[in-house]
Fold these 3 entries.
Entry 1:
Amino acid sequence: MIEFFSYMGTVSFQVLILFIMIAVGFIISKAKMINENGAAQITNILLYIVTPCVIISSFECMEFNENSVNELLISAACAVFTHIIGFILGALIFRKKEKSTRTTLICTVALSNCGFMGIPMTEALLGSHGVFLVSVYLAIFNIFVWTVSYSMFGGKFSIKSVLVNPGVIGTAIGFAIFFAKLKLPDVISIPVGYMSSLNTPLAMIVIGYYLSCAPFSLKKSDLPMLVSVLVRLIAVPLICLAIFRCIGMTGTLLTSCVIPAAAPSAAIVMMFASKFKADTLTASKGMAFSHVISIITMPLILTICSLFA
């Protein structure tokens, strides 16, 4: 019992640190120190430069051996399973909703903020080994985003959009370094390390900005949105935890697969809803409430996970 509360305190402390940085983003947004263009520019820096650097740095730190390769393959399979569970649950629960709202709700359940929220949390709790495994989840996430989700919102499927995106490219470079057993020269690895250290503060500031723009008022019509958020934060990670543990997963591998599954809803849902003129209000509220409620749910889920890890 003492260990339970001790670990929960550790996770809660890390979540609190992240949300203090989110609060900074919220405050500077309200103070008009950052606007939509600024947030979009920071997001581009994160997506196209910082996130690939985080992934490359984590792969470079890992030693190539049979165990690490097996962990990568298991992590990839778990990422696929987690997304499939999310899409199935969302489709079943919201099957009677109007198409625009249904798509938004399903994607709120299925897609987590595994990059901006999952990687910082993993780095804080598990270090580079955990980030190495979550990087695979991020690549799988990008594939689902640009195939299933993009098509659901009305986008035209494109092989280019699946393969040519920062998460997949960063993972591909990381794989090349990992499998070729390469060691980057200091003149490259040190700048990559410095850039990767920007991930957590910049990502939290961007989340804070978007939360400052989101409507937090609740109406009776928002009940489906709240259901989608609770399924995203509680049902999906608990189902995944139960399945992963039943197949014998433990330790860092188990925790690194549960963290992104327990993360709040991805901002890409709101972006797609806006781009394709879907239910943007539900999308923005889902992102906002999922991040706030995750202050409670993530420590609880990860502490439960620690009991089985």
Entry 2:
Amino acid sequence: MKTLITSLFVSAGLLAGAGNALASEALAKKYNCLTCHAVDKKVIGPSYQDVAAKYKGDAGAEGKLIAKVKNGSSGAWGQTPMPPNATVPDADIKTLVKWVLSTKK
């Protein structure tokens, strides 16, 4: 019985994680992030997996990336600048950044 309950909790956690990833990907589509980025390959900007790898272990990564997404940035990944996304709600930017940082190769 204990094994069954543990399995149910693990399954529920995996489903919730998958649901969060799908919701985050929907936000990326809504705000046209996927025009320049992809999860697993460079498009115009870096892949989300490359961003996660670059900031792995950086305690301030979330704040840094939220600022870069909101205000735009240049030079971190080459010549092409990322335009500001000032009209995207802060809560959505935070959700997107958390998702990007969670992607793994």
Entry 3:
Amino acid sequence: SRAWGISDRSHIVGWAMPPGETVFRGSLYGNSHFIQLELLAWTTHECVGWEVNMATQVVGSVQKYDGNYRWYPFFWQDANGNGSNDIGEMITLGNLGTNGFFGSALDINNGGQVVGGSDVTSYDPKQTRHAFLINPDGGTWFRDTNGDQLNDLMIDIGTLGGDWAEAWDINESGSIVGYSTLSDNTTTNAFLWENGAMTNLNDFIPTNSG
């Protein structure tokens, strides 16, 4: 088992492998109560809970096998308040590309904004993954108005010039931090994203400081 996130209400999320199973499931623990998180509509999958906010809304990644193993970012909340995981309470949030093999929601703030990383292209040696932000609209985290299987609420916040980036945390002001490759697709630097602009935090490290 692993614990990955904790809220100020001491709710803890992560993953655990149930007895007798060979896959791991998402987990939520709080108020002396344990909830196993999984996408009940899928039968062959694994699940990881990455973070939980003060409203006990959980985000993470869930796997589906459809001939290929694909990971999707998810959002979960106990909509009916019964203290268990029920059908429809976990939803996938889509990926930035329709054929992407990987997407993960890595943090959610108390306003419900979700950040993470998602493939933009299908899996190949030049796979492209970008950092994303989801701004929920009226209690909705996924919307597909044109039927292209992409989330209209998912914003591609880009990279620092390379092909790879993930957003790892977002605060209550909507400032986002993460990491990204540079244009050489080898060097990895930290970034701060605010008001539509991504800043390379390594630029603030004094030259020759070690």
